[in-house]
Automatic annotation (TrEMBL):
Protein name: UDP-glucose 4-epimerase
Stretch forming the signal peptide: none
NCBIfam families for this protein: galE
Annotated Gene Ontology cellular component terms: cytosol
Pfam family, one: GDP_Man_Dehyd
Annotated ranges, domain NAD(P)-binding: 5-326
Subunit comment: Homodimer.
GO terms (BP aspect): galactose metabolic process
Source organism (scientific name): Mucilaginibacter mali
Cofactor field: NAD(+)
InterPro entries per record: NAD(P)-bd_dom (IPR016040), NAD(P)-bd_dom_sf (IPR036291), UDP_G4E (IPR005886)
Transmembrane parts of this sequence: none
Amino acid sequence: MAKILVTGGLGFIGSHTVVELVNAGYEPVIVDDLSNSQLAILDQLNTIIGHKPAFYQLDLTLETDVQTLALAEPEIEGIIHFAAFKAVGESVDLPLKYYRNNFYSLINLLNAYYSKPVNFVFSSSCTVYGQPEKLPVTEDAPVQPAQSPYGNTKQICEEILQDMIASGGSKYKVISLRYFNPVGAHESALIGELPIGVPQNLVPFITQSAIGKRGPITVFGSDYNTPDGSAIRDYIHVVDLAKAHVAALKLAAKESFTGYDMFNLGTGKGSSVLEVINAFEQSTGVKLDYKIGPRRAGDVEQVWGDVTKSAEKLGWKTELGIDVMMSSAWKWEKYIAQNPLN
């Protein structure tokens, strides 16, 4: 049973990926500093998969701690690197926080396992495309100037990985997965998105507003060049996204795969903010209170991905639609309202 190190493994995407790794016969080892997650998720995972995965609480920006981890877990065959700060708006206000965390954690991790044959899956983002010139955006599209420090960290981290592979000095094989907008929750409603503080993303703000935890939803911008004036994104169910990481590990493990590649992870279809709000109301029967506000710094107007390459080379495509994304997110919100994880 191959051991897979999952950094940020108690976070939103990380926890769902741990479940899918176990389902696929892997042994996940979780690392998390709990800066944007909760230890209680470990118990939730135990309920879903029937055991508690190995867990290390540590800060990946501390080089000596990461080296100690590598000594404690020398049999790691794959790494899925989620651990990063990810709020676009916060990165505009606190760029140095983002550059320090997102760069140091990646470099320390790469150094720690540099001499070993490890399949490395990097949690990247569609933000590397900036505002694309053409839609849907393909993996061959030119990388545009980043719209935020967060987006810039993802661009530069991909460059770091490509430069490392090009140097020929490591035994890594690397796949970067460029996510669009992950939403939803596991069908058990035992894990889901759990933002600390005010949510920076649309769907958790929607569910928190619907349950009375937040005030009205603000739609940031109604004057974009889109059919209804609100920004468009490609929303993807988190379980579909988690399964793509398993597919990436399997591809990287093949002898025919060498070096570096990248893939778009999305549905291939864009939905506007107002369409998402409507989908939530339709799938849950809950009416939302929202207002129109000004555009938000760092946001692009519209982006959705061409996912042909993922279907053909990864052998992966999404299965769950926008209605399941909204209903599962709402089921999770109601669960944590009745079962606080503190």
